[in-house]
Design goal:
Blueprint lengths: L5 H13 L9 H10 L6 H11 L24 H16 L1 H12 L9 H13 L1 H16 L5 H8 L3 H5 L2 H12 L4 H17 L3 H15 L4 H17 L1 H4 L18 H17 L7 H18 L3 H18 L15 H16 L3 H17 L4 H11 L2 H5 E5 L2 E2 L4 E2 L2 E6 L9 E3 L1 H8 L6 H19 L9 H4 L2 E4 L6 H6 L2 H25 L11 H31 L35 H11 L14 H7 L6 H4 L24 E2 L5 H5 L32 H15 L4 H6 L4 H17 L7 H8 L8 E2 L2 H20 L10 H10 L22 H22 L1 H26 L14 H17 L13 H17 L4 H12 L26 H30 L2 H23 L7 H19 L2 H6 L5 H28 L2 H4 L2 H22 L5 E3 L39 E3 L12 H9 L4
Parallel strand pairs: 7-8, 9-10
Antiparallel strand pairs: 1-2, 1-5, 3-4, 4-6
Helix pairs in contact: 2-4, 3-5, 4-5, 4-6, 5-6, 5-7, 6-7, 6-10, 8-11, 10-11, 10-12, 11-13, 12-13, 13-15, 15-16, 15-17, 16-17, 17-18, 17-19, 19-23, 20-23, 22-26, 23-26, 26-27, 32-36, 34-36, 36-39, 37-38, 38-39, 38-40, 39-40, 39-41, 40-41, 41-43, 42-43, 42-44, 43-44, 43-45, 44-47, 45-47, ...
Protein name: Fanconi anemia group D2 protein
InterPro entries: FANCD2 (IPR029448)
Subcellular location: Nucleus
Length: 1228
């Protein structure tokens, strides 16, 4: 349409758009049809904007008006709304320009208040078209939901009260909701749960609800963990609120039972809750369907509990207790099943049946007790059920306790030749009972070997019942906290006596200590609830109980140290005392005891299989053969073998005795209680876990009852708790962080005490540890020591580890959780004012702001790093890494608060502090790299550790400087070349400032520079180049080309060092990272081609610099193949492939954009790294023939660019005709 005829047409469109506000609703569909048919590229955006502004639906606003079933079959919605939707759908289906314009417009909206109900209908209508548009809608919807740009209120506005309007688009609503349910993001799945509930409530017909249930059951059986979890949550929500409506169609839910075997414990609980809701909450007077559901559920759990297969028994235990939970709720007096028994009687019968079925197996009974304890912690059951559980748990006293007279054993006890003795009596003569461990362990070898495995979980159940019936108090069993333990006499641990013990006796000692350890861990779990936030005991009683708990913690550290020392020489697989998914199928008994193990710790699966194959081969005498190891040969020859050789993780060394090698493993080594128990950590999954409440002991001190106020002897106790806390924080449990929030102040106290010990020394009270240990009831054992330096530095490091992990929690940066972040930062604030330090940042920081707190925490760590470095380089690295985590936390917070909006006035943290802190972090890393590690007092920093430390420090240094490329260029061209090769070891000519850069550390520096150089290039290709392409800024292009040139020069300098450093590992690093650099550099060729015309000289110089590196790489590869250096040859194929691609990319670049002889491809002479020409057909080893890597024999005129030729000898596919032609004349 052109000329004068177009004007009236466009005028009509303008008039039609203006009529959107005033047209009668009955004419609205016709007006929309005209506008949508008239849409083109010039006016489509205007039309869509006007429709969004003025189109409104007139359906009923009362959500209940259409939920009444009496209205079924009647016209309950305005026919105009249906006509409008039909008009929109028909035009969108056949005119893609409208769909694309709508999606562009909706994508540009970034605030939830700007979205309208019509937007939801647009998305649903476009989604119904299918194809690529459907996927675009799903992606947009997911993004907006995750970013909270689209609220559930809009969908509620479209669904509630518009049943007839939604009915025709019900499938599209379900499809969108199903897609959100399958997303990995929690927000998307929560949104889907809300939509499912809205659709279920609005559509009361059986067909629609069956469709919803079918989708949920399908996702429950998908096997995808997040989908299964969310679908089960939705089903639990439905059955808890609409159980009566679901009973008639419960057959569609029964399909969930087909997937029970693949569910986790949490999901199993949800499944049984679903059927409990249907059976109990859906109970009605006239309906017998719920009784059948209850009867079927009881039959299922009874069969599962009685099943000999442990997997099904686990399901039955969980199901039984969920049914007991439902039956034990006093708010639901109706009958669960069709039997005449009350709900309470049904629950007691189930409990008796479950306990009787599990008595023969240990782990199922442990699981049952633990699940029952957790149930009592969360739910208020009927008093009859709690009383019965209390009677059953009360059997603990008769099974595991023994009476005392005035705190002493009634009669002297010797079990299988081992003399017993009372350990760790905190109540003295007032103790009425003791834990009878040794006699029960001795009897377990003859009968009922599993009784002691159950007693920790049974005590847990007893303590929970006591709290439930005594208003949270444990006053009825508080005598157990201080009662002594009947254990083997400390005389057994003497060197002479230990050698005399038989294998069975040693196993008894180990198991006695093991059960004592787990008993004390359960005491800490139970009684730490009394010293937390409780009001029913006085402060004096709370302090006395905390002092006892700290003494028990000291007992625990001693026992774990002793058991770990025994397991260093005597191998024993400890029995499982705690249920976990990984060990449920085992039988729960300890394996054979080997007093002279050849290897300890976990072995690879392949190694175990090989060992099994050997041991399963009998010789003619019927005995099993075992292949001797090199350690066997050493011992047979009388050579002493240290523990470091047999177990690299052990810090202890066995005593040497060439005359009696068989006795070496029969001695318990020196036990340092400050060291982590390496052998126990390998089997920690078998132990009873410490619960979160036990960490409340970090806030208490026993100084009031000790010989002095010196905190040194308390630090090992806090170190033990912090190590366990660090392990739990690895799982990123947000609930755990909330529970330890009151302990943030204790972290600062621990840091100050540990730092004071490192700074001032350890001579304040030499006998403090011994006196506190004696007051705790620990026996004197001569080979038990405590390294004070190790305790102080380890404690400092554990606190920093906890701090870093807590800062890494993503939820802490949500607006609602910023007070927690503020409290964490306040922990590390310096005592002096740090305002002057921020004087260079304008505007100045305000006291109490988050950026001020960030700066204070950083300055506190920066101030102590010098003193820490003089003690341990590992400790200094931990401080640097914590400083880096603070900087990363600032970056995360700024990104969340600003989100691209640089003028966010409500931001809690300023963007200007980030470069300030990064600059200081780089300076701190530089200082550490310039520090001489030999000045550290801690000898635990091995050369291997120092290499890892230096590598991390270099990464921090390079990533937090003003210009990474400039610093890399300086280090690679000026600093690293000063390091002599390993042959000369002459360091007199080294004049750089980095004390950590020595011939022994050259490889660490060399590899780190390669990694960072390649990483910088990869980041530039991925992030910087696309932005510059979009902006097309000439200055930015020139700056980026300069940066690329610097990185190429760094590579050339690093590769050139291979001429001096001829170690194989150095050459292997050069080939590996050289190939990676070239491969990543090729991704930037599209950018180079688009800007070659204006920057040809820069790009040619850059490629020439890269050519210097590729030539040397070719030479290294050639020499490695000739010398058969496998460390290098394994990396050659990938590198050669990248070099070949570079060759032809450069040829194409120069051929298409230049004239004259700029590019020349020819055959190169074969030269070695020193530049000498060598024969291409002769090698000192082997008969490989390889011509690649030849250096160039052509002239090197600046007007020509000569690149390496790659021949067919390397397996590369190269056009031979082109090579022949180029070898004669070269390409112009």
């Amino acid at each position: 349409m052109a000329g004068s005829s177009a004007a009236p047409y466009y005028q009509a469109i303008t008039i039609a758009i203006s009529c959107l506000r005033t047209v009668d609703l009955e004419h609205m569909p016709h007006l929309l049809r005209f506008l949508l048919l008239s849409a083109n590229q010039t006016n489509v955006k205007r039309i869509i904007l006007q429709i969004r502004d003025h189109l409104k639906f007139t359906g009923p606003t009362d959500p209940n008006s259409l939920r009444n079933k009496k209205l079924k079959g009647k016209c309950a919605v305005n026919s105009t709304d249906v006509a409008i939707l039909d008009t929109l759908r028909s035009n969108l289906r056949f005119k893609n320009i409208l769909c694309e314009a709508i999606l562009r417009e909706l994508k540009s909206i970034d605030k939830p208040q700007y979205h309208k109900a019509i937007d939801v209908w647009f998305l649903i209508l476009i989604h119904s078209i299918g194809g690529t548009l459907q996927r675009s809608v799903e992606k947009m919807l997911k993004r907006k939901v995750v970013l909270e740009c689209l609220q559930v209120a809009l969908f509620d506005q479209c669904i509630h009260g518009h049943r007839e309007l939604v009915k025709d688009h019900f499938a599209s609503f379900l499809s969108v909701t199903e897609y959100l349910l399958s997303c990995k993001e929690d927000k998307a799945r929560d949104f889907a749960i809300h939509l499912f509930m809205a659709l279920f409530v609005e559509f009361c017909d059986i067909y629609s609800r069956q469709e919803i249930l079918g989708i949920l059951v399908t996702h429950i059986g998908s096997g995808v963990s997040h989908e299964v979890c969310s679908a089960l949550d939705m089903m639990v929500l439905l059955t808890s609120k609409h159980s009566e409506e679901l009973v008639p169609i419960s057959s569609h839910i029964n399909g969930i039972l087909d997937y029970l075997e693949g569910f986790s414990e949490d999901n199993l609980r949800k499944v049984y809750d679903i059927f409990c809701h249907l059976a109990l909450r859906g109970k009605s007077v006239k309906d017998t369907g719920t009784s059948s559901i209850g009867n079927e559920l009881l039959m299922i759990v009874r069969k599962q509990v009685s099943n000999p297969d442990q997997k099904y028994r686990k399901m039955g235990i969980i199901g039984t207790l969920r049914v007991v939970r439902a039956l034990g709720d006093a708010h639901f007096p109706g009958n669960f099943s069709s039997s005449q028994k009350s709900n309470g009687e049904e629950a007691l019968e189930l409990l008796r049946m479950a306990i009787n079925s599990c008595k023969a197996d240990v782990l199922p009974l442990i699981l049952l007790y633990d699940e029952l304890s957790a149930l009592l912690e969360r739910e208020n059951l009927r008093s009859t059920i709690i009383d019965w559980i209390g009677i059953h748990a009360g059997e603990f006293e008769s099974l595991f306790l023994a009476d005392l007279e005035e705190g002493q054993l009634i009669s002297k006890n010797i079990s299988d030749g081992i003399e017993g003795e009372l350990w760790m009596n905190l109540d003295g003569d007032l103790s009425p009972v003791c834990l009878n461990i040794l006699p029960i362990v001795a009897s377990s070898f003859e009968q009922n070997p599993s009784s002691l495995q159950v007693f920790p979980s049974q005590f847990t159940l007893l303590s929970v019942v006591e709290r439930s019936t005594n208003q949270g108090s444990l006053g009825g069993i508080d005598a157990l906290l201080g009662c002594p333990l009947h254990l083997p006499s400390p005389k057994c641990l003497d060197r002479v006596n230990w050698r005399k013990l038989s294998e069975k006796q040693r196993k008894m000692v180990c198991l006695s200590f093991y059960y004592a350890i787990n008993w004390i861990r359960e005491l800490l779990n139970a009684f730490s609830t009394q010293v937390g936030m409780v009001d029913f005991i006085t402060q004096k009683t709370k302090n006395e109980m905390a002092a006892k708990l700290l003494k028990r913690l000291r007992n625990l550290i001693l026992l774990e140290g002793l058991l770990d020392g025994i397991l260093q020489s005597d191998s024993l697989t400890l029995p499982e005392l705690s249920y976990s998914s990984g060990n449920f199928h085992s039988r729960g008994t300890s394996k054979s005891f080997n007093p002279n193990p050849k290897k300890r710790g976990r072995k690879p699966k392949s190694e175990n299989n090989k060992e099994k194959e050997v041991s399963d081969t009998p010789n003619p005498d019927g005995k099993y053969l075992k292949q001797p190891t090199i350690m066997d040969a050493f011992k047979k020859a009388g050579v002493s073998v240290s523990q470091e050789l047999t177990n690299g993780s052990s810090p202890r060394v066995a005593p040497t005795n060439a005359c009696s090698p068989e006795l070496e493993a029969d001695e318990i080594e020196i036990v340092d209680l400050s060291m982590a128990p390496v052998q126990l950590e390998l089997q920690r999954c078998n132990f009873r876990p410490l619960l979160g409440g036990s960490f409340s002991l970090l806030a208490f001190s026993e100084s009031c009852s000790s010989c002095c106020s010196d905190p040194q002897a308390e630090l090992p106790l806090y170190l033990y708790l912090l190590r366990d806390l660090n392990i739990k924080l690895e799982k990123t449990q947000w609930e755990l962080l909330i529970s330890i929030r009151p302990l943030f102040g204790s972290f600062r106290r621990l840091v100050d005490n540990a730092f004071a010990m490192l700074r001032d020394g350890f001579e304040s009270c030499p006998d403090h540890w011994e006196s506190t240990s004696t007051s705790s009831g620990n026996p004197e054992i001569p080979f038990v020591v405590v390294s004070k330096l190790s305790v102080a530095s380890s404690l400092f490091r554990e606190v920093l580890h906890c701090y870093r992990k807590m800062l890494s929690f993503p939820d802490i940066y949500l607006q609602t959780n910023l007070p927690i972040l503020r409290e964490m930062l306040e922990v590390l604030q310096p005592t002096e004012d740090v305002g002057l330090i921020f004087s260079e940042i304008q505007p100045s920081r305000i006291l109490g702001n988050l950026d001020y707190l960030y700066g204070g925490a950083y300055m506190f760590l920066e101030a102590i790093i010098g003193e820490a470095c003089s003690h341990s380089y590992l400790l200094a690295l931990d401080i640097i890494e914590t400083m880096q985590s603070v900087v990363s936390s600032v970056s995360t917070l700024v990104e969340k608060q600003f989100g691209g909006n640089e003028k966010n006035m409500n931001a809690e943290c300023s963007q200007k502090i980030l470069p300030f802190l990064r600059k200081r972090l780089g300076e701190s890393a530089h200082k550490l790299l310039s520090y001489d590690p030999s000045n550290c007092k801690n000898e635990g920093d091995t050369p291997q550790n120092k290499g890892d430390i230096i590598q991390k420090l270099l990464r921090i240094y390079l990533q937090n400087c003003e210009s990474t490329s400039d610093l890399l260029d300086h280090l690679a061209s000026s600093v690293l070349p000063q390091v002599p090769s390993g042959k000369t070891m002459d360091t007199q000519e080294m004049h750089h400032e980095f004390q950590t850069l020595s011939p022994s550390m050259f490889l660490t520096w060399y590899r780190s520079l390669h990694e960072e150089n390649h990483g910088t290039l990869a980041k530039m290709v991925k992030e910087v180049i696309p932005k510059i392409r979009a902006n097309s800024n000439e200055e930015a292009v020139k700056g980026l080309l300069d940066e690329l040139h610097k990185l190429v020069n760094v590579l050339a300098s690093l590769i050139n060092m291979c001429r001096v450093h001829d170690k194989v590992v150095v050459h292997a690093v050069a080939v590996k990272y050289g190939g990676r650099f070239v491969d990543t550099f090729l991704k930037a060729f599209g950018f180079l081609k688009s800007h070659f015309e204006k920057n040809s000289n820069k790009i040619i110089e850059m490629v020439k610099g890269l050519q210097k590196a590729t030539r040397l790489i070719q030479t290294i590869c050639s020499e490695a193949k000739g010398s058969k250096r496998t460390m290098i040859t394994t990396k050659i194929p990938a590198t050669k492939k990248s070099l070949e691609r570079l060759l032809f990319e450069v040829k194409a670049l120069l051929h298409n954009n230049t004239t004259g002889r700029t590019f020349e491809l020819g055959m190169l002479k074969h030269k070695d790294l020193s530049g000498q020409v060598v024969s291409s057909q002769v090698y000192s080893y082997g008969d490989d023939v390889d011509d690649d890597g030849n250096d160039d024999g052509h002239n090197t005129n600046d007007d020509h660019l000569e690149l390496d030729a790659i021949n067919e000898d390397d397996g590369m596919e190269v056009d031979q005709d082109a090579n022949d032609d180029n070898s004669n004349q070269g390409d112009d």
